[in-house]
Design a protein that fits this description.
The complex is a heterodimer of chains A (240) and B (272).
Chain A lengths: L1 H4 L2 H8 L2 H33 L4 H15 L3 H11 L9 H26 L3 H9 L4 H31 L11 H10 L5 H48 L1
Helix pairs in contact in A: 3-4, 3-6, 3-9, 4-6, 5-6, 6-8, 7-8, 8-10, 9-10
Chain B lengths: L1 H20 L12 H7 L1 E6 L2 E2 L3 E4 L4 E3 L1 H13 L3 E6 L5 H7 L4 E2 L7 H4 L2 E3 L4 E10 L15 E4 L4 H11 L9 E4 L2 H9 L5 E5 H4 L7 E3 L5 E6 L2 E3 L3 H16 L2 H8 L9
Parallel strand pairs in B: 1-5, 1-6, 9-10, 9-11
Antiparallel strand pairs in B: 2-3, 3-4, 7-14, 8-11, 8-12, 8-13
Chain lengths: 240, 272
């Protein structure tokens, strides 16, 4: 591996293929963005459903979470790619990537949302209710904003996992970044060293800003809390 | 910004270090000589597990069979080694396993070509095959010209893709990346063919023979690009490569090789 990385001609042959890597990078980005939107939507909806007072709704959310959490993503993808065509459903690889990675991550996200809502004191719900807030208003204006700080770290974990998990479509010739890197690494001059190194670097480029942003945002939220607490103290001192 | 750049750079270097960490210094050592292997008492061979006639793992009793298995055992016999350790390899892993020193040789339907010779040593070919196409009987594909708007399934890292692209170009058909689906294993390509995910399965004829059933057939008229299978060894290990080449040459001359091929029920080498 290290030997290959030291050989300039291998990097040159990689450079000659950069348009293919670029378009594969775009494919990965496309799968990641749409899957993320799907996962967030499913996460919030099913997260809310699992905190519902209605037993049936809770059961539906439970079945969704347990099914997707307890079966491998690879099998879900294989099933959709190889088995669904027999039922007349032949989705493209990119669509399969978006649907499978999105629903899979959505299950994990809904658990984070459920835990976040569960951690908000009951008094908050009661206070909102007593002020005449509807269920949607309570959730959107009072509860969910408070959960953000709590669920942000696990949510970002899931987002980063989602980006990396898009590489699953390589197994079904998805044309994504990992697929292209694999193709370059195993064809022609077989320069796997530069190929995989570049591939890893590009995934890093996608994930690193996400984790950095999340860390900063979390710090800011915490700082705001401390400030608010200090202000409150001052007010209390003034009163005393 | 500077800080971020420095961080990115150090991460990249970490990557590079981690990537070569598994090689147990394989890049600096030249690998084991025949005498080393004899002394160690174990010959480590990378083989296929899913190619009937060449390298097939029988899951019932966990034994291997095929031309390449017989070859490995014969080489071990020559070395005076009792034990042969088989490692399953794929087209994507075999080169890296050789480089890292995890295995001594690869006998895994590994096609010899000029580009690959830059990275590894190959023996004289022990078998010559030709690439062919497996299609569904009702696909309407009769020859290479029928492939223009079709998807062809090939194994990741196989030479079939380039060979077919060249053969198609000669027939006036342009095939691009969009015409190919690279899948990891042959059974996956067969499953993709059955599911209608790919329209044709393209690989060496000897391998295709293992996947013929009632619904599909091999296009008899399409045989192109002879594929020469050789035993691959680490590039720096010339002594070992010469030793193996000598053995194979001898067995080709005295008919031992023909016998091994016949014993495994594989058609004789393709002669263009």
């Amino acid at each position: 591996m290290i030997q290959q990385i030291m050989e300039p001609w291998r990097w040159q042959s990689l450079l000659a293929e950069w348009p293919k890597f670029a378009s594969a990078f775009v494919t990965t980005l496309e799968i990641a963005v749409f899957a993320l939107a799907l996962a967030l939507a499913l996460g919030v909806v099913f997260g809310l459903m699992s905190t519902s007072h209605n037993r049936l709704i809770r059961i539906i959310a439970r079945v969704y979470v347990e099914f997707f959490q307890n079966t491998p993503l690879a099998i879900q993808v294989f099933f959709v790619f190889y088995a669904l065509p027999y039922a007349g459903v032949a989705l493209s690889q990119v669509t399969i990537g978006i649907l499978c990675v999105g629903t899979y991550t959505g299950a994990y996200m809904s658990e984070a949302v459920r835990a976040g809502i569960g951690s908000i004191p009951k008094g908050q719900f009661e206070a909102a209710q007593s002020q005449g807030f509807t269920y949607i208003q309570t959730m959107m204006l009072i509860i969910l904003p408070q959960t953000i700080k709590i669920i942000l770290p696990p949510m970002v974990n899931q987002m980063v996992n989602l980006v990396k998990n898009t590489s699953i479509v390589t197994m079904i010739a998805g044309g994504d970044l990992m697929y292209r890197a694999n193709a370059f690494a195993t064809n022609g001059t077989m320069s796997y060293g530069p190929s995989y190194l570049l591939c890893g670097f590009l995934y890093f480029l996608l994930c690193f800003p996400l984790t950095t942003w999340a860390r900063r945002y979390e710090d800011r939220l915490k700082k705001r809390d401390i400030q608010t607490a200090e202000q409150l103290e001052k007010v209390e001192e003034g009163l005393a | 910004m500077k800080k971020l750049f420095a961080l990115l750079l150090s991460v990249t270097m970490l990557f590079a270090l981690a990537a070569c960490g598994g090689g147990d210094g394989g890049t600096t050592s030249t690998g084991r000589t025949p005498a080393d292997i004899t002394a160690a008492g174990v010959l480590k061979v990378g083989v296929k597990t899913d190619v009937p006639g060449f390298g097939l793992l029988n899951t019932a009793d966990n034994t291997y069979s095929g031309i390449e298995i017989d070859l490995a055992n014969k080489i071990a016999e020559e070395l005076g080694v009792d034990k042969v350790e088989f490692t399953p390899v794929t087209a994507a892993t075999r080169g890296q396993l050789l480089d890292s020193g995890d295995i001594d040789m690869v006998a895994a339907t590994f096609t010899i070509n000029e580009e690959r010779k830059l990275s590894w040593n190959f023996t004289t070919p022990y078998y010559t095959d030709a690439v062919s196409l497996l299609v569904k009987k009702d696909s309407g594909i009769e020859d290479i010209t029928g492939l223009a708007d079709k998807i062809i399934g090939v194994a990741t890292g196989s030479t079939s893709m380039k060979a077919l692209t060249d053969a198609a170009a000669e027939a006036g058909v342009t095939l691009t990346d969009a015409n190919f689906s690279e899948l990891a294993t042959y059974p996956e390509i067969k499953a993709a063919l059955d599911a209608g995910r790919v329209d044709a399965f393209c690989v060496d004829g000897s391998i295709l023979a293992g996947y013929v059933d009632d619904t599909n057939h091999i296009l008899e008229t399409v045989r192109f690009s002879p594929q020469e299978y050789g035993i691959a060894t680490k590039k720096a290990n010339t002594e070992w490569a010469e030793y193996l080449d000598g053995l194979i040459k001898g067995w080709l001359e005295d008919g031992t090789m023909d016998q091994i091929i016949a014993d495994n029920g594989v058609v004789a080498s393709y002669e263009g």
